[in-house]
Structures are given as C-alpha cells and as structure tokens.
Amino acid sequence: MSQNHHGSALPPSFLPQKFQILSGSALKLIAIFVMLIDHSACILLSQYPPALTPLFCIGQNAYTPYRICRDIGRIAFPIFCFLLLEGFSHTRNRKNYGRNLLLFALISELPWNYMFADTWHYKKQNVFFTLFLGYLAFCALEHFRENRTRLFLTLSGLLAVSFFLQADYGWRGFIFLLIMYLLRDDKAPQAIIGSCWLAYEWKACFAFLPINMYNGQRGFIRGKLSKYFFYVFYPLHITVLVILRRLLF
C-alpha cells in the first residue's frame, strides 16, 4: 500500500498502483483547468452564436461546443471536494483553513454575481460557500463523534443552510461532501456511491478516475504563495472573463 506525504497509508484505489501517478498539485491543476473551460463557456461561448451550433447529435441530444465545454467542467467539483478533504485531513491549522474558505467565498461573491447576472446581486452563491459548509460538516463529524444527537442536529442545520443559501451545487453538493468524508478510507465504495449520488450530473462521475490516480504526494506546488494562488484563481479568472465579455460582446 502506498503512502501519502505525511507517511500514513493511502486508502486503496480501485486502480492498480502503476496508474496512481497524480500528485495533489496535478489534481489541483486539472481541477482549475477544467473549471476554466467550464466558466469560459458559461461567460464567453454562451454569447458566441457559432459555439451554440450543434456539432453532432446522440439520440435526442445535440452537442454544441458550448455544451461540450460545460460537460467537461462537471468533473471539477468532485476533485475540489476531494482536495478539500485532503486539505482538512492534513492541514496544521484547521481554523486558518476554514477562515480562508470563508474569506474567499466572500471575495468571490461579486465576480460570481456578475458572471451570471451581470450585476452585483444574484440569488445563488458561489461554490466556496458549499466547500465552507463541507468544512464545517467535517469539523462536526470529528468534534461530535461520540454525541450522535449533537452531530445529527449540527449536520441537519448545515444541510438547511445549504438549501436556503443556494450555493453552487446546493444541498446535493453538501451531501456529496459528506459521502466523500464518510467513505474516505475506501475509494471503491466512495466512487460507486458518489457516482450514484451525482447521477443527475453524470459527467461529474468521471472525476473519480483522476481522484483514484492520486498518489498521496504533495507535488511541485509548495509554499504559501503557491497555496494562495489556488484560492485567488477562482475570483480572478471569473473577473477577467467577465471583463472580456464586456469588451467582446
């Protein structure tokens, strides 16, 4: 059994060890790359008529460049959820970890609103809020491990918040994060049950391939500057794309 960069054993993957070639850094790059494809389609291709012209059809479904890019982007969320769980498990300061999630949820809200509504107000919230609620759920699962009543009440409260907050992926995303946490020690059931839960967004299920190619190593991205780049990238790339939309369309 392989080990992560902290020396602890990795949960068994459903892939042979020779395929476990992706570090945490590689997973981060994959996630932000497919997210960039997704958001570029959402913000730019949606305004470009040729990108809305079908390239081919499968059954009753017409596939345009816009739709293909949006479908590719579906794999980003499960990878970010996995990376959240890895970060939570290995961070030296969980308080700062949660603070950063909440801080960038607030920072990202204005660019997010302009992405969808082209104004400062939009009824739904960005994905950092979903990840922050997942972080709080992970804390509750550890802190109230011996008190099932408090655990149930806390998780129910967080689920209600995720429902009314209408953050990206909503309550379904929150429950997916719980699935990822509860099955963190066994990758095959995690992938199977996680994929069943994501059936409504089935393209996201392909994320379990790179997740199970994870080798437990931190990789080439080290230091605070590199770490914060991945927080900053989310609001920054949305802002740049929104500006491009204003200039081009």
Textual characterization of the structure:
It is a single chain. With 249 residues, this protein is mostly helical. It has one domain (17-248). It has helices at residues 24-43, 65-72, 76-90, 94-117, 127-143, 148-165, 170-182, 187-197, 208-212, 223-248; strands spanning 56-58, 61-63. The protein has a two-stranded antiparallel ribbon. β1 and β2 (61-63) form a beta hairpin. α1 runs antiparallel to α2 (65-72) and α6 packs antiparallel against α7 (170-182). It is globular, with a radius of gyration of 19 Å. 29% of the residues are buried. The chain crosses the membrane at residues 26-48, 97-115, 127-144, 151-171, 191-216, 228-248. Keywords: Membrane, Transmembrane, Transmembrane helix. This is TraX protein.
For the biggest β-sheet, the strand order reads 1-2
The profile of the biggest β sheet is: 2 strands, antiparallel
Q: What is the C-alpha radius of gyration, as a whole number of Å?
A: 19 Å
Provide the residue-averaged pLDDT: 92
Into which percent range does the helicity of residues fall? 55-70%
